[in-house]
Design a protein that fits this description.
Elements: H1 2-22, E1 30-42, E2 47-60, E3 63-79, E4 86-103, E5 108-112, E6 120-124, H2 125-132, H3 134-137, E7 146-153, E8 158-165, E9 179-185, H4 197-203, E10 206-214, E11 217-218, E12 225-226, E13 229-237, H5 243-254
Antiparallel strand pairs: 1-2, 1-13, 2-3, 3-4, 4-5, 5-6, 7-8, 8-9, 9-10, 10-13, 11-12
Length: 259
């Protein structure tokens, strides 16, 4: 009886381990949304225009996917009553997604226009980085700014946010902010994307959000004051919804021979 009990314990203990070894590994995919909000001034009336953009980054080991929202407008005929009676045309809006697939340290990637068509073409990774402004984002620094305020989480022991002012601002440069707010999040430390690797390393937390504030300013050449404006850039971790499709894209990338 004792031998039977030991055998039972052995089976119960070793079987889950055995099946865990042969079961397919659920690949760990990191998914974040990169959001930006830009307020620009329309001259000469001085009205604010808002430009909000968002795209998704997906990471699996050395594999990367950029999922970009694309809005397509097409004309279609309205059908009124019977099928043979054509009405006027209407504008139909479709939301599609472009997928930029690329491997770390590779110069070329694969662009898939839509999962509906899966037509693909080769693109330059360097061009994508410059287009998205990642080359500028990763060198973002506050060396020339004055630190005015620090907010810390005393329970967790790390900095939550910092506020900077810009005392040496070039008053003729409308792209230089008056104030800068930085926000940090340690739960994003495993995200490969960075606004500033230097700041992430110094703070031991991911720089998760940047807010640039531009104070009201009298413009030269226009009898008008530009209102207060804000630019913001943010990293937000999200849940993966279309896992099977994403895995298929990663498999395409794995099997590709990119230079």
């Amino acid at each position: 009886m004792k031998t039977a009990f030991i055998y039972f314990v052995f089976i119960v203990g070793i079987c889950p381990l055995f099946f865990s070894l042969i079961a397919p590994r659920k690949e760990s995919i990191i998914v974040v949304d990169i959001k930006s909000k830009i307020e620009l001034v329309r001259m000469p009336d001085g009205e604010l225009m808002n430009f909000d953009t968002q795209y998704q980054l997906l990471f699996l080991d050395s594999l990367n996917i950029v999922k970009e929202v694309v809005t397509r407008n097409t004309l279609q005929n309205k059908i009124q009553g019977r099928a043979d009676l054509q009405g006027d045309t209407a504008l139909k809006t479709d939301t599609l997604y472009k997928y930029f697939l690329f491997k770390r340290f590779k110069k070329s990637g694969i662009l898939i226009d839509s999962l509906r068509t899966k037509t693909s073409q080769i693109f330059s990774v360097d061009s994508l980085i410059k287009l998205k402004g990642w080359d500028r984002a990763e060198t973002y620094n506050v060396d020339n700014l004055k630190l005015n305020e620090v907010v810390k989480n005393n329970h967790l022991g790390w900095t939550v946010s910092e506020k900077y002012s810009n005392p040496s601002k070039n008053l003729k440069d409308e792209n230089e902010p008056d104030s800068v707010y930085l926000f940090f999040d340690r739960t994003l430390n495993n995200v490969p994307f960075s606004f500033s690797h230097k700041i992430d390393k110094d703070k031991k937390a991911k720089l998760s959000k940047i807010i640039l504030v531009f104070n009201p300013k009298k413009t030269e050449g226009f009898d008008r004051t530009i209102p207060r404006r804000e630019f913001s850039f943010e990293i937000v971790k999200v849940q993966l919804k279309d896992r099977r499709q994403v895995i298929d894209l990663f498999e395409i990338l794995r099997g590709s021979k990119l230079k």
